[in-house]
Amino acid sequence: MSKVYFSTWNGEFINNIGKPQEEWEESAYNLPATYDDNRDSKAFIGWDGVALFNEDVDVIRLAMEYAAQYQEYSEACGRCAPGRWGGRILYDLLDKIARGEGSIADFDHLKEIAKSMQVSSKCEIGKTVPNPILDLMTHFEELFMECIDEQKPSKHYNEEVSYIAKITAPCTDACPAHVDIPGYIEGVRDLNFEESLKATRQTMPLAHVCGRVCPHPCEDACRRTNLDEPISIMELKRLGADYETDHGLGFLHPGKGKKKKPIGKKVAVIGAGPAGLTTAYYLALDGIDVDVYEELPVLGGEVAVGVPEYRMPWAKYEQDIAAVKDLGVNFILNHRVTADEMREFEKTYDAIMIASGTRISKKVRCENERPEIQGYWGAIDFLDWINLYEKFDIKTPKEVQEQQMLPTDHVDLTGKTVACVGGGFTSMDVVRCSIRAGAKKVIMLYRRDEKTIIRNTTYEEYHEAVEEGVEFMFHSAVAKMNDENDVLKSLDVDKFELVPDPDGGRPQLVKIEGATETIEVDYLIPAVSQSADLDFIPQEWELEMTSWATLKTNGKDYMTSRKGVFASGDCEYGPMTIVNAVGQAKRGASVISRYVQTGEITLTDDEIMEDHLRKIKVYDKKEKITGWLAGVPRQKSEVLDVNIRKYNNDEVNFGFTQEQAISEAERCMRCYYIAMVAN
Amino acid sequence: MINFKVNGIEISAKKGESILDAARRHGIYIPTMCYLPKTTPNASCRMCSVEVEGQDGFVLSCNTPPVEGIEVTTDSETLYKERQNIMKMYNVNHPLQCGVCDKSGECELQNKTLEFEVDEQTFAVRDQYRKKKKWGVQTYDPSLCIMCEKCTAVCNEVVGSSALFIKPGGYKSEIDINLADCISCGECVSVCPVGAMASTDFKYTANAWELKRVPSSCAHCSSACSLYYESKHTANSNREYDAKIYRVTNDADFTSLCGAGRYGFDFENRVQTKDEEAFALALDKFAQAKNVVFTSQITNEELYLLKKLQEKFGFNLVNEEARAFQNFMKNFASTAGETLYNATLKDIAQSDFIVTVGASISRDNPMIRFNISQAVKHNKAYVATIHPIVDGEIKKLVTQYIKNEVGSEEAALAMLADTFVEDKSSQKEFFESIDLGYLSGESNISEEEIALLKHFSSRKKSRVLVIGEDVINHPQAANIAKIVGFLQKSGAFKVVINPTNTNTLGVCLISNLDEAEEGFTIGYNTKADFTLSAKGDGDLDMPALNQQEGTFVNIDKDLVTLNAGVVYKGYELNDIANALLGLRAQSVIEYTHQLGFKDIKFDELVDGVLNPAGEIVRGYKIESQPVKTQASIDEVAELGEYNGSVIYSVNPINQFNQFTKDSEHLGAKTELVGSLQFAIAAKISSGDDVKFSINGTTYLRHFRVDRKLTGTIAFNPSFDQDNKSANYRYNQVKIEVTNE
After folding, report:
1. Do the Cβ atoms of B65 and A191 come within 8 Å?
2. CB-CB contact of B225 with B260 (8 Å)
3. Residue A645 lies in a domain
4. What is the pLDDT of residue A257?
5. Which of B439, B466, B497 is the last residue of a domain?
6. pLDDT tens column, A422-460
7. Count of structural domains, chain A
C-alpha cells in the first residue's frame, strides 16, 4: 500500500492532482513505488492501468514509451494484424504528439486504433496495451492537447529517463520458475514442438520432469478458469519434451544456448536434485566450472529416487540430466560431503550452493514410535530402495533386507499389509508403489477428508490410487504402534470428526472418543513430511535457520547468512515442489554468477520486476473474460488400464494425443501482459 | 455432432471442427486472410471473428469449436467495422505497386480491401527498410508480407521441412528461412495471399488475368497430383508456337505439389508441323516391329492404342519397369487375397504408426513425404524407416531409423511379419521357418529394434506400411511381395506400394507385358531402332503429357484426368492407330470408357476440388478384385553380398525423369554423390570425373563427397536415363577415374 499521485490500477481511481502530498490517498495495491533499495519509481504502467508516484511524470512520454516497449521489447508479438500494425501506429502517433508534431486527427486515430486492438488482438498483450494509454489520454487530455495546440514537445521529452519493462502472464507469474507458458503452448498450437520446448527451457531446464510431475500452481492462476476450466498447462509442456526424445534431437537448449567460454570461476553444488541440477545448468552456461556432490549413487535427487517410474520414467528424466552433463558439469556421486570438506570448499570454490533437499522422514508422533521396530519404515528410505531397483537395478543390501523383512534383494511386499500416514504426493507414491510391490492390502491414513487430499495432490493422483485398490481411511490418525518383540503387528487408529466452529471460524478436527480401532499391519510408513539433513554444515558457520529448520535466505537472492554460501530447493523452503526448487535455483545461479565475478549480491532488472509483479499478483480471479467462447471442454489424457498398471511400473499417463493437444492449446487465451516502471 | 445456429440457420459441426469449418461446409461465408484449411489455424488476421449470443466480445471462428446450442452471427455492423479496421491496418505502408505486382488480380489483400470498402488511408507510420530476399525458387518481399503465417504453416506441417520460420518482433516481424532445409517445393508461394512470396522465375512475366487455366494431373510421379497449367500467348514475332505454360498452380487451400510438379512444367514438345514423311515411315515400322518398348509416362489411352496395335501386329509390348511392378502385384495378390493394396496417401496422413521399407522417402514420391509429415504433425505418428541409408533430410519426421543391410529387405519384412501378424496359421510353414536371431544377423536389424517398434505400436490406432521401389526391383521381389500381401491380409498394416513411375499402376492394370525378343524395336518415349518421342529427339514427334488429354491411375488407385496445357501440332498415336487400324477417333479420350475399368466417358469424369469445403474427387477409384487362391510364402533366401563400393540409384529431390531434367526451373545435377567412406573405399576424391557400369549401362559422372552421408554409399541419379531401370537399386561397382 503506497501513496500515489494518480492511479487507475485494477479499476481503482485515485486522483490526487492538485492536492498536497500529505493528503494523497493510498492505492489498494502493492504497487512498486519503491523500485529497489536505491531507487524510487516515478510511475508504474501496465495491462490494468497506470499509477503515478509523483507529479512530475511526463504522461505523454510515459504512454509513448509504454507503446514503444510493446513494439520493441515484446518479442512474442508481431503475429496478428492488430498487434503488429496497431502497436506500431500507437507508438508512432504518440511519439508524434510527444515531440510536438501531432494533430487532433492523430489523437482521434489513436483512440480508434486502440479500440480495435482491444477487441481484435490475438493475445492479451495487444488487447491490454491500449488500456493505460487510453486512461492517460482521458484523464490528462489537456496535456495532450497542449502539445498538439502549441506544437511543443512534452515536458521531459528530451530528458534521460529509464524505463524498465517486463512481460508476464498470470500463469507465468504463478509459476515459481516463471516459465513462458503461453509461449510453449503457442509452440504446440503452431505444431512447432522444438519452439515449444525451447520456450519452456528458457527458465526450466527440467522440461521432461515438469511436463509430467509438476503440481502446476500455474493452473490455479489460469485466466481461462474465469470463463470455464483452466488450461491443462502441465500436460502441454510434455509435447515439446517428448518430441525431442521421439526424434532423437539431442538436447535443445533455448535460444543460442551456447556455453560461454570458461571464466575461471568455480562453484560447488551440494546435491544433484532439481535445485542442484538447475544451479549447475545455469552456472555452466555462464562459463563457470561446477562440481556437483551427490550422496546417492545416482543423479536426480528425489525425482530419481522418490518419484516412481510410473509417474516419471527415468529415460525421460535422464534426457534433462543429459543437458547438464552436456555442458561439462562435473558430478561426484556416492559422496556425502562432510563439515571439513565444506570448510575446505569455502576456500577452494568461489561460491557454494547447498541444494541437499529434505531427506529425513518426519515421525507420525504416535505412541511407541520406535525406529527399531521392524515394519516401521520411513517413506524416503522406502521409496529409495524401490526406485533404485526399478530404475537403476540397484539391489537392496542384506542389512536393509533383514531390517525390513524382505524375502529378496528388492522391495517385495507380497502378502503384506501396508499402512501409510500422509496425504501429500510422497504418501501417494508410497501407497501406489506398495500396490505394485504386491502388497495384499494398502491403507492410507489421513487426518482430513477426501477434498483436502485432492487439493494437496491432484484429482488424478487420488482417483488412480483408489482404482488401484488403495484403501483411504479419512479423519484417521495413528495413536499407537503395537509390536511383538520389536516386530510391528498392528496400529491403534484414532478417528476424528470435523466440528464446525460456532463463531464461524474454520471447523476443528475433534477426536471421537471411543471410536479408536486397531488394524493389523506389517508396515507403517510415515510420509507426513520431511526435514532437512544439514549435519554437514560446519557448526561454527552458524547459518541462520527458519522456524522449519531449513536454511534461511531473503527469498530473493538465495544467499544464506554466510557470504558466498547459497541455498535453494527444499533445504531452503522446506519440502515443496520441483518447480519451486528449479525457480529458486535459477535465481540463485543468476546471483552467484554475478557474485563470483563482482563480489556483489545483485538482482537484474528483470528479476526485480519479476518480484514486483509477483507482489502485485498478475492473476485476477474476479476479472470477467470477453472475446472467448465459454464451455469448450478441457482435454484429459488417457491412462494405462488399471488392471495392467497395478502389476508393472509402466508410465500411467499416456499424455495427450496430438488432436487433444491442439484442441487444448487452442483454448489458451495468451494472457501476456506488459508492465513498465519509470525510474 | 454439435448442433448450433449460424445467422439463424441450424447447422451441425463434426468432432474437432471449428465454427468456421462448419459454417463453410454449410455454404456460409466468413471472411479470412490467414486461414488455410489444410493446416492448423494461425489466428493472425482476426477477420473471422464472429459474435456469439450472450458472449461479450468477438469469438474467433477459425480455432474455436462450437458449443451445443450457441447462436452465431457472422455479419453485423460492428463486425464489418472491425474487419474494415483490420483491412485499414493491413494497408498501412503496403506498397502501392499493384501495377507491377504478380499477385494483382488474384490478391487477397486487394479483394478484401475492396470488399470492406477501404478506399483511403487516413494514417501511416514510419516505415522501415525491409530487404527483399531471393531464396532459390522463391523470392520474398517483406514489405508486401502481411504475416498471415500460411507459408510457415505449410512448410512445417505439410512439407515437414520447417525451413521457413517467423522472426518475431512487433512491426519488424517477418519470415525467414534456413535455406539448407528448403526443398524448393514452392508450397509457400502457392499459399501466399499477397505478392510477398513469389516464384522467382514467374515474377514479372505475366498478370493473373492474362493466363489461361487448364486443370490436369502432374506427369512426374505416381501421385499424379491435381494441378493447373497456366499458359499465355507469347509475343514471339516469328510465331513459332502460339502459347506456352507460364506457371503451374493448384488448389493450394486443399492440395499440394512438389517442386517438380510446380516448376517442371516446361517439357512440352514444341514441334510446329506434321512430318508426313516420318509419319509414313512410322506406319511401316509398326507393321514390322518385333517389340514396342515404352515407359510408364504414358496415358492409359495411349497404352490402350498400343495394345490395339499389338492385337493386329503381334509385337511384344515391353516395359521392364512396369513388368517388375506387375509381377510384384501378382505375387502380392496371391497372399493378400485381392489385387490391390488397400491404403492411400490420405491413409498415411491419417495414420499414427507408419513403417516404410525400401523407400527413399525424401526423394521417390514427394507426396508420401508430405503425408507422413502431416501424420507426424497432426497425429504424433510414430514413423520408422527400414532402409540401409539414414536419410538426414527427414530427421524431423522419423521416430526410428532402422538401418538394414543392403539386400536384406526380405529378412526385414519377415521380421516385421513375425512380430506384427497375429494369426499366423494360414502361413504356418513360413512362420515356423523364421529364425529371428538368424534374420537379425543377416539384416543387421537387432531384435531389440523390432521389439521397440512393436512396443510403440501398441496404442496406435491406424498402422500403415509403405513399400518402396527398392523391394519391387529386389532379386527376391516375388517372395517379398507375398510377405507384404500377407501383412495386408492379416490386418497388421494397411499397405501402400509406391508405383515406380507415373502411370505404372495403370499400365499394369491395362496390359500384360512381354519380355523383349531379338528384332526390330520401336521405342515410345525411349530410344530404340525407331523412336517416337515427346522429347522431340526421335524419328517421329509425339505429344508430351502436358499436351494431351487422357488418364492415369495414380498411387491412390484413382483414375485421374489430364488436359492439354498447351497445343501440340504434330502427329499423335491416335493418328497412327486410325491409319493402321481403320479407326476414326478424333482423340484418344474416346477410348477412356473402354479401358476395362468403369464405363464412364472422359468428359463425364470429375477431377479436382469441388467446393469451398474442400471436398476432393479424383475421377474414380479402381476397385481391388478378390483373389481366391492363396499362395504360400517361401522361406527367406540367403542374403547376397554387397561389399565395397555400393551405389544407390536415386534421384535428387525434384528430379524424376527426362522431362524434369530439361526444365529451366529445376536445377539438374547429374553428379555422383557419395560419403567420405565411399570415396576412400573407391579410392576417388571429390571433384574427380569417374566412370562405372551398372547392369550394362555405363555412366560418366562428376563425383562429389557429401559429408552428411554415412555408410559406404553413393547416390547415382537416373533421371537422365530415358527409361526407368527394373533392377535392384543397390549395385556394387568398380569405379575408374577418368580425369583429363
Report:
1. no
2. no
3. no
4. 56
5. B497
6. 999 999 999 999 999 999 999 999 999 999 999 989 888
7. 3
pLDDT, averaged across chain B:
93
Domain limits for position B439: 323-497
The model scores a pTM over 0.90: yes
Residue of A444, A435, A441 whose CA lies nearest to A386: A435
CB contact under 8 A, A74 and B170: yes
Q: Using CB atoms, which residue from A76, A88, A121 is nearest to B168?
A: A76
Residue B584 scores a pLDDT above 80: yes
Give the residues across from B262 on adjacent strands. Answer: none
Helices (H) then strands (E): counts for chain B: 21, 35
Nearest CA to A350 out of A593, A603, A601, A604 is that of: A593
Chains A and B form CB pairs within 8 A to the count of 162
Contacts of B67 in chain A (CB under 8 A): 629-632
Min Cα distance A197 → chain B (Å) is 14
Tell me the ipTM for this assembly: 0.89
**pLDDT in the model for residue B740:** 75
Quick check: B86 and A116 CB within 8 A?
Answer: yes
pLDDT of B667 reads 81
Asked if residue A213 belongs to a domain, the reply is no
Ranges of chain A whose pLDDT falls below 70: 1, 73-77, 255-257
pLDDT, position B239: 57
pLDDT cut 90: percent of chain B above it: 84
State whether B652 and B617 are in the same domain.
no
Range of the domain at A581: 266-360+531-603
Within 8 A of A190 by CB-CB distance, chain B residues are: 40, 42, 152-153, 156
Residue B502 falls inside a structural domain: no
Q: Which residues of A59-97 are buried (b: 16+ CB within 10 A; e: fewer)?
A: bbbbbbbbbbbbbbbbebbbbbbbbbbbbbbbbbbbbbb
Contact between B490 and B380 under an 8 Å Cβ cutoff? The reply is no
Name every chain B residue with its beta carbon within 8 A of the beta carbon of A652: none
Task: For A462-488, give one letter per residue: b (16+ CB within 10 A) or e.
Answer: bebbeebbbebbbbbbbbbbbbeeeeb
- The residue among A436, A172, A440 whose CA lies nearest residue A311 is A436
Note whether A635 and A188 are within 8 A (CB): no
What pLDDT score does B241 carry?
Answer: 57
Q: CA nearest B165 in A: which residue?
A: A192
C-beta separation of B144 from B130 below 8 A? no
Chain B's closest residue to A655, CA to CA, is B380
CB A581 within 8 A of CB A587: no
Cβ separation A628–B59 shorter than 8 A: yes
Three-state secondary structure of A379-429: HHHHHHHHHHHHHHCCCCCHHHHHHCCCCCCCCCCECCEEEEECCCHHHHH
A653, A248, A437: which is closest to B452 by C-alpha?
A: A248
Average of per-residue pLDDT across B185-192: 97
B669 band by pLDDT with thresholds 50, 70 and 90? confident
Chain B neighbors of A85, CB-CB under 8 A: 89-90, 92, 125, 171
Domain final position from B441, B468, B497: B497
Q: Are residues B481 and B551 in the same domain?
A: no
Task: For residue A629, give the chain B residue with the closest CA.
Answer: B59
Listed by number, the residues of chain A in 611-670 with a beta carbon closer than 8 Å to a beta carbon of chain B are 624, 626-632, 654, 657-659, 661-663, 666
Of A92, A113, A629, the CB nearest to B55: A629
Rounded to 10 degrees, the C-alpha dihedral B202/B208/B214/B219 comes to 20
Strand extents, DSSP E, B170-315: 174-177, 197-199, 212-217, 226-233, 243-249, 291-294
Q: Do B170 and A121 touch (CB under 8 A)?
A: no
Chain A residues with beta carbon closer than 8 angstroms to that of B382: 246
Q: Report the chain A residue with the minimal C-alpha distance to residue B2.
A: A632
